[in-house]
Design goal:
With 53 residues, the protein is mainly alpha-helical. Helix content is 38%, strand content 0%. The chain is elongated and about 50 Å long.
Length: 53
Amino acid sequence: MRAQPKPIRIGAISPLTGALTYNGTQAQAGIRFAVDIINKAGGIKSMGARRSK
């Protein structure tokens, strides 16, 4: 039985308050959407099919 590889943590800096709140929340939603697609496709293949978080 193989151990599950640790998930890859993804970080981003975006404004979540103030005048640019809309832009920051849209960027955050886009990142989450991309992570979901990558994970559903089996993870990042070049890194041993590791999942993103």
